[in-house]
């Protein structure tokens, strides 16, 4: 874990009330003591629970499809999409994108409740409420109960949105309470999120294979070690209950709460003001998150269709960018100037545009290693500048006394771009409207756009005065 920044860190000093200093020996700002690890742990655990749920539902939904002749849905493009993904062996990936879009819509729709809730509720209780709600949805979606998984996914997105709000709210408040740089705190929390999502994806996939089965085979139930989906959901419920317990330990230097009714009445005007005043930070960061969402499925399909890599090995290519993102988040406080951010996004655009060059490497192993290497660098070039941008917005929201609303607006804008760029391009890929090669030109263009907008953002070296 990164060590604390110097007491005079400009980001922290800007946020501290007059007459107080972080990590001082006494004073009201230090009761109770504030530590970073409970929020980091809760972020990682809620992310893991979210990913486990997603992996279980992907397998359970896929198990309901007829591999050898899908029934017409009445919607031509849906039938075309299902048949195409089945023929190419990417049914799970297509469902993954549809489910991800559904979860994202849940986060967006719940914004009208989660924003005032974040301003009225302590950060630790937000994590608790999110974990409890996610555990409840895990119970309701057990296949034995026969519930429709898609509305349940919307509700899961809504409850996970509470954790997103808590994560964003905690960043400036923990920076204030621990004396660390805002960028360091944000980087540690985002790194924990990536670790949680990665671990949850692996664990959820394992639970699905053991207790649900493989949807790609004819006798699906017999493909499970023990066909008992309720056990997999029970494990997830127990995991979320453990997350509830751990979330009680989250303590931050809370600002005065804004009553829920007042926050709801001010939701429209407050959101518009934050977007208007900090649009460059929100939009450039949102575009970057959209690129990351689209690149995940895009690179998977490119590896299968163009590089000739098997589906199992291609799925492992999700690991290198995740490791790169962890590293990028942890080093982001060392590259926190506007110049650093713009150069990183420019390099990201060059890397994305040049990614198809791995197809020219001789041999399957060389292409696989080349793709994994470039994806690791992609993770670093995405995470480092994006964390700087996100941390700066959350810092400014905290300074303005709206850390809770800032965390939810931050999550709302990111998810809108993830839905527009990530899900939009993914659907175009599965429907054949965009090729697996030309997609990289679109993504590179978005990276250049993020760089240009970041040039308008109020970024500065955390150790220097604002400019």
Give a concise summary.
By secondary structure, this protein is mainly alpha-helical. The protein has 19 helices and no strands.
Structure description:
This protein is an all-alpha fold and 467 residues long. It has helices at residues 10-15, 37-63, 76-88, 91-109, 111-120, 123-140, 149-178, 182-211, 220-223, 229-247, 260-265, 267-277, 279-305, 311-315, 319-331, 338-354, 364-399, 403-431, 439-454. Helix 16 packs antiparallel against helix 17 (364-399). The radius of gyration is 22 Å and the shape is globular. The model is unreliable at 1-32, 67-75 and 461-467 (pLDDT under 50).
Helix-strand sequence: HHHHHHHHHHHHHHHHHHH
Reading off the top of the CATH hierarchy, the class is best stated as Mainly Alpha
| Global structural class | mainly alpha
Number of domains: 1
Largest sheet: none
Total strands:
0
Query: Helix proportion of residues, in percent?
Result: over 70%
| Overall form | globular
Fold-level CATH name: Growth Hormone, Chain: A
Gyration radius over CA: 22 Å
Under the CATH scheme, the architecture is Up-down Bundle
- H/I helix tally: 19
Q: What is the overall pLDDT average?
A: 81
* CATH homologous superfamily label: MFS general substrate transporter like domains
Summary tags:
mainly alpha; 467 residues; 19 helices; Growth Hormone, Chain: A; disordered N terminus
What's the topology here?
Elements: H1 10-15, H2 37-63, H3 76-88, H4 91-109, H5 111-120, H6 123-140, H7 149-178, H8 182-211, H9 220-223, H10 229-247, H11 260-265, H12 267-277, H13 279-305, H14 311-315, H15 319-331, H16 338-354, H17 364-399, H18 403-431, H19 439-454
């Amino acid at each position: 874990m990164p060590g604390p920044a110097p007491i005079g860190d400009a980001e922290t000093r800007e946020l501290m009330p007059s007459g107080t200093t972080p990590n001082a020996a006494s004073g009201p700002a230090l009761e109770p003591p504030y530590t970073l690890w409970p929020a980091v742990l809760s972020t990682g655990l809620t992310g893991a629970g979210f990913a486990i749920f997603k992996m279980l539902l992907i397998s359970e939904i896929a198990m309901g499809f007829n591999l050898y002749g899908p029934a017409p849905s009445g919607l031509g493009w849906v039938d075309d999409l299902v048949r195409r993904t089945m023929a190419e062996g990417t049914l799970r990936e297509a469902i993954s994108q549809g489910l991800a879009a559904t979860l994202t819509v849940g986060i967006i729709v719940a914004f009208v409740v989660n924003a005032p809730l974040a301003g009225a509720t302590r950060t630790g209780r937000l994590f608790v409420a999110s974990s409890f709600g996610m555990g409840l949805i895990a119970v309701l979606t057990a296949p034995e109960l026969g519930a429709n998984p898609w509305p349940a996914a919307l509700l899961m997105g809504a409850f996970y949105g509470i954790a997103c709000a808590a994560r964003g709210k905690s960043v400036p408040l923990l920076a204030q309470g621990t004396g660390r740089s805002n960028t360091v705190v944000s980087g540690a929390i985002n790194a924990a999120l990536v670790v949680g999502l990665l671990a949850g994806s692996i664990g959820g996939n394992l639970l699905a294979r053991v207790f649900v089965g493989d949807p790609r085979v004819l006798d699906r139930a017999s493909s499970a070690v023990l066909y008992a989906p309720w056990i997999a959901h029970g494990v997830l419920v127990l995991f979320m209950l453990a997350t509830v317990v751990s979330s009680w330990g989250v303590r931050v230097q809370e600002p005065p709460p804004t009553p829920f009714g007042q926050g709801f009445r001010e939701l429209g005007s407050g959101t518009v003001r934050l977007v208007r005043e900090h649009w460059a930070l929100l939009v450039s960061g949102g575009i970057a998150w959209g690129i990351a969402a689209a690149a995940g499925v895009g690179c998977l399909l490119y590896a299968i269709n163009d590089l000739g890599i098997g589906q199992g090995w291609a799925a492992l290519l999700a690991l290198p960018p995740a490791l790169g993102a962890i590293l990028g988040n942890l080093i982001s406080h060392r590259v926190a100037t506007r110049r650093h951010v713009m150069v990183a996004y420019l390099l990201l655009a060059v890397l994305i545009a040049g990614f198809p060059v791995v197809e020219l490497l001789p041999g399957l192993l060389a292409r696989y290693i080349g793709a994994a290497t470039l994806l690791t660098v992609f993770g670093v070039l995405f995470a480092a500048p994006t964390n700087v941008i996100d941390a700066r917005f959350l810092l400014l929201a905290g300074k303005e006394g709206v850390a809770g609303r800032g965390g939810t607006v931050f999550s709302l804008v990111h998810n809108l771009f993830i839905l527009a760029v990530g899900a939009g391009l993914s659907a175009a890929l599965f429907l054949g409207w965009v090729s697996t090669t030309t997609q990289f030109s679109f993504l590179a263009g978005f990276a250049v756009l993020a760089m240009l907008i970041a040039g308008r953002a109020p970024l500065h070296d955390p150790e220097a005065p604002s400019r």
